[in-house]
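Forwarding the complex inputs:
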Amino acid sequence: MAVLTVDNLKVSFDTPDGPVSAVKGTSFHIEAGECLGIVGESGSGKSQTFMAAMGLLPSNGRASGSVRLDGHEILNLPVGKLNDVRGADVGMIFQDPLTALTPHLRVGEQMAEVLKVHRGMTGSAARRLCLDWLERVRIPAASRRLRQFPHELSGGMRQRVMIAQAMLCEPRLLIADEPTTALDVTVQAEVLDLIAGLQKEHGTAVALITHDMGVVARMCDRLEVMQYGEVVESGSVGKIFGAADHAYTRRLLDAMPRIDAGDAPAPMPAETETLLDVDDLRVEFPIRPESGFFRKPIPLKAVNGVSFSLARGETLGIVGESGCGKSTLARAVLRLIEPTDGNVSWLGTPLTDLDKRAMKKERKDLQIVFQDPLASLDPRMTIAASIAEPLKTYRPDMTARERRAAVAEMMERVGLDPDMQNRYPHEMSGGQNQRVGIARAMINRPKLIICDEAVSALDVSIQAQIVKLLKDLQAEFGMSMLFISHDLSVVREISNRIMVLYLGRIVEMGDGDMICATPRHPYTQSLISAVPIPDPDLERSRERIRIPGELPSPLDLRAALRFLPSKLAAGDEDYVPRLDQVAPGHWVAEHDPLDRILAQAPAQDAL
Amino acid sequence: MFGKSDKAADLAGEVTDHTAIQGRSLWRDALDRFLRNKAAMACVFVLGLIVVFVVFGPLLAQWSNEEIDWSRMGDIVRDGRPNIENGHYFGLDELGRDLYARVIQATRTSLLVGLIGAAMALILGTAYGVIAGFYGGRLDAGMMRFVDILLAIPTTLIIILILVVAGRSFITLFIALGAVSWLTMSRIVRAQTLTLKTREFIEAARAGGVSEGAIIVRHILPNLLGVVIVYASLLVPEMILAESFISFLGLGIAEPNTSLGRLIAEGAGTMAYGTLWQLLFPLFFYVTIIITMFFIGDGLRDALDPKDR
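Prediction (whole assembly, two chains):
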């Protein structure tokens, strides 16, 4: 019997420009114990469908139709009655676990509140149950976590707390709204495994709202594909991945980059001229410890001795999880952050020694595209003014008319209609804004472009378009690129070579397909095994490599030697792992055998 | 000669580019939101009426503000009542001067005090705050400690000291009000600058080789303006209140000039003798100005910063 039945649900919002309909009559159902994937890109109405069902619409939203939970109508119920349902029969997990947890309440208090409301359970009984669930979601040192505040936990931990809290009353349905989008791949893999485990053990039905076809392939039994507020295709995962009927579904599937595709750009010929040479670059931030009377700042080594070179026209992908120093590295190369030590030489000129004036001259050839397309554009400027800004600095000889022509030409080149030049960033979509950011970076025809997570904030299909645009621009203008991303499959698509960073150090560097097909370092192996592949059969049969523990803090000195437990055991904590060349152009940092690393007791977690 | 002109070329470009879609700037959006705000628009209308009254009111006046009506000053309670026929629309004050002319004069002073005080805060506070926030480090620490020290001294005390030392005049009053009003403004602007300066579009401008001065003028200031305008609009009534308080104490504006605070003080002093109009007319204008100003400020905040609601 269906746990949740949604019938002809319509959601619309009243805005000053008239009503906007977000969901236009969707119908679907979720059976007990199954995992239903709701897939669609931003604005497809996938989240609003469930927000409306749970009565969580903002005050200007209106919902009509029917939503039945176990046969009882719950749509537009008064709040009092809804509260009996929410949390008890239906649990919800949101995308950002930090904003979804109340910052001033301890983990234990937040969880106990759910029990108090729905079960009337308080005191030690409630505490025991909370502890039990924290252990079931595999949080290490659970009893200590009960007394901690959300900000003291890492992103993955917080999401586990959210899941434990949602599961406390053993709901029949768990709604997970992009539960892993804000998490690193390895953490994502663990959270997904956890949800799948709960689904099996407790027979909880799961509604998984996501944009990631890889996640769907791993988790879901059935699938509803949404576009513009309507379900365009539904069916079993095997059927849809095998033979999608609707053009939109096919487009979504095709746009999804695959890490196992094996068509990474070929490595550059060896004789290509070197543009950028980075030697032993270090960036340290002084951090004040929280305790101690004479608080001496200790250095946080964000980038800890990174060396690489970049040839003309080459793309080097930089991959790593959050906190590995990849963005800091990019900014240090451009001297947007001053490096603490080391050399960056650009066409033989050491950039690190230049004064402000000389540096400004070099910036013409060194450009950057940022992650958040909206935040990287001045909201008070028209897009044409934003694109023209570098021209004003470097081509003061141009008249306003010439500038306008150059901007229009560049807009056309990046796929924007020149008629939109007087628009403001808030009037355009994320993909369009990112095109503006690329146009601004390209307008002076630079020799190097750094893309700092340039496609990470975009929908899959837009992401594919932007990657293609960058490739085309590179073919046309021959610039080099540093392509930074946490997403290995996107990096592989565009990079000649890939560099994997871990806590500010290179752990592996080599040609794109070499890294993805035959990774040598345990960290790279675990990263690659965690990346979901949009192919249900392949994805479910893959073996995952789990390095014990979460991504540790860069302040923890011992963490740097996580892959050399033998050195740690020998008490050699300052040891710097060597980079060995295992094959031509394939460098791997020194590490212990995988078995040895996996065998370490998760001692660091118990802290 | 014509073809060479940059401006002319630009204008020509503007004319030929008629196909381009006109974007809606954030300013335009804010204006639309403000125009839709009924309370704020009503207040703008009322305040506009007061301004019209101040500008054109003297044309209707039959008495000047300095003239003493000798024939009626003998018995103000009986002869000095508001009266359309004898030209004393608002009655007489204690000395036998025409209250209508005096109220116009006082309203003008109070509005000027509010606007000039807020304007000084706007210019000085913004410049100071932007410099401290943008350049940061020791400079910021030094500049902000100076503000902290000044803020620690009671505002009224500073104003009174300046007025006593430099003598009571219009100019010193404006200087005294300006001297205290920019302090909070500079703090707000500094905090805003600090958050703006880490935004990606500033970093993008840096990477694009834009000089620091240009970053401040082109990127920081326009993005600050919303907050600054809102705060300045709330500062106007605050300045009027401060001035009235000073005048109420007997400092502030000196005769023959006057302000609403002063008239209210005088009216309150003679209240017991039955000349209630001497208090009520200035009080009405005073309260109306303050209330409308606050509503307009609120409306501006809602319009410029819709997330805050």
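The domain at 274-365+446-606 of chain A is CATH 3.40.50.300 (Rossmann fold).
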